């Protein structure tokens, strides 16, 4: 599957087909992640049930500490 992830064309295995699986694939499981799918924010409770498809545009934003 090919999609736009954080502004870059990205090839993913077809098995990565939900927001939750994408977060796990990107190794962001233990972080607070804001997900935008095709211009809409996806609530955390909806990550597992939200499918992703070839051509989707996804932004994953996570917070990094520091000063």
Automatic annotation (TrEMBL):
A UniProt-annotated Pfam family: ThiS
Q: Organism's domain of life? A: Bacteria
Name of the protein this chain belongs to: Sulfur carrier protein ThiS
Which lineage ranks, top first, belong to the organism behind this chain?
Answer: Bacteria, Bacillati, Bacillota, Bacilli, Bacillales
